[in-house]
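#lab-general

N.A. 3:47 PM
ok so I finally got the sequence cleaned up, no stray characters, all 147 residues accounted for. can someone with queue access submit it? mine expired

B.Y. 3:52 PM
send it over

N.A. 3:53 PM
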Amino acid sequence: METPKFQFDERTVMSLLLIVVAFYVGRMIPRWMAGVPYMKPQEAKAQLDANPDALILDVRAPSQFSGKDGHIKDALNLPLIDLMGRIKQIKADLGQYAETPVLVVCKNDQLSARAARILRKNGLAKVAVLSGGLKAWKKAGLPVEGA
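B.Y. 4:20 PM
back already:
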């Protein structure tokens, strides 16, 4: 039985390349728009250990926060939808965290980027996103609660 042979002409290769680039750019847009640094899990853990006053803000839904994946110890759950809907109400409360390091976490870092942008626009100066989200945190073997 003969193995099928695939022939790639220049047009096919360019189309595949364009798809890959579009996918990459699509994944990077939230990062660029957030305008905040991204921290790898080990770096975030070291900073959290060095600064016990840091705030960990988990923007997933409450069912995810307390669900099978768990959450980072001492994280505060503020779902992105609540943050967006109540930013005017909670803006005064955010003032006390203006110079506090804030690590924003979600499942894979997509929602975190949006939340970080909102927080930055509303007065928090030291906001960072956990790169890869809780998924990367767990993959790095770092501890979670409630899992």
